[in-house]
Amino acid sequence: GGGRRACHDGVVTKVWAHRGASGSAPENTLPAFELAIEQGADGLEFDVQLTRDDFVVVIHDETLERTTNGNGWVADHSLDDLKRLDASAGHDGFAGVTIPTLEELFTLVASADVRLNVELKNSRIPYQGMEERVIALIDQFGLRERVILSSFDHNSLRGLAEAGVGMPLGVLYSEPLWRPWNYAVKLGASALHPSLAATRHKTVERSHENGLEVNVWTVNEAEDMERVAECGVDALITNHPELARSVLDAR
Ligand code: G3P
Ligand code: CA
C-alpha cells in the first residue's frame, strides 16, 4: 500500500478481463463484459469463432456443451440456431443470456474506454475468412486504435503481419518459448501473451527492450497479480477484474 510505486520500467500494469468478468458472470457474454467495465477493467479479452453462416460469435470452445444448453460444433450451427441457446452456464440470475455476436459486443463497448483483445480461435478449426470478417467489423465500428488481435495460431499472425493488417498482434503461448521476444519480432507481432506459468522476468525485460508488450494470462490470485505487476507486465488478464483493480490500485 501507500501510494503507487513505480513498477519495473515504470510500467503500470493494466487489468484485462478474461472472457469478461468471468469469475462472476457467464464467460464471454454481454453481462460479463458490462460487469468488467463497471469493475474498472482497462481491457476485455474474448474469443471469437465463426457460425455456419459466417457470423463472428463470441465463445471460447469450438463446441457448445460446456457453456450453453446446445450440442455439437459452433461451426455447424447458423446464428439463428445459436441465438436460441441459453449461455448462462449455470450462473444464477443470468437466465436467457445468449452467445453474443462480435457486432453486439462492439455495440456495447463502442463508447467505453477499454482495450479490446480479440482472440482468434483459429488454431483448431481453420475458419475460412474469419480474420477478414473480424477486421471488417473492427473498421465498421472504428475500433482500430483500441484492438489487439491474438492467436495461438502463429501462422495466422504471420499472415496478418505480412498482409500489413496495421493492428497490434499478440503471440499466445502456454509453454516457455526460446527467446520469445526474437520470435515475436520475426513474426511481425507487437506483443507476447504468455501463460502465467510460461512468464519469465527476463522475457518482460527483453520484450520491452525490443518494443514489445507482455500481457499475461490467466492471473486470478492476488499474490500472482502482485508478482506480475512487480515484474512490469503490461497487462494481466484475469477472471477477477475487481480483485485485480484493488490489488494494483493499492500498490
Ligand atoms: O487470451 C488469453 C487466454 O484466454 C488464452 O487461453 O484458453 O483461455 O482462450 P484460453
Ligand atoms: Ca482466450
Work out the helicity level: 25-40%
The set of bound ligands, ions and cofactors reads:
SN-glycerol-3-phosphate, calcium ion
What gross morphology would you assign?
globular
Remind me, CATH topology? TIM Barrel
Largest beta sheet, briefly?
8 strands, parallel, barrel
Report low-confidence residues grouped into runs of 5 or more.
1-7
Structural class: alpha/beta
Q: Secondary-structure element order, as H and E? A: EHEEHHEHEHEHEHEHEH
How many domains in all? 1
| CATH architecture designation | Alpha-Beta Barrel
Major beta sheet, strand line-up: 1-2-4-5-6-7-8-9
**Beginning-to-end CA distance, first to last residue:** 5 Å
Binned strand content:
15-25%
Q: Would you tell me the overall average pLDDT?
A: 95
Pfam family, one: GDPD
Domain GP-PDE: 13-248
GO molecular function: phosphoric diester hydrolase activity
Protein name: GP-PDE domain-containing protein
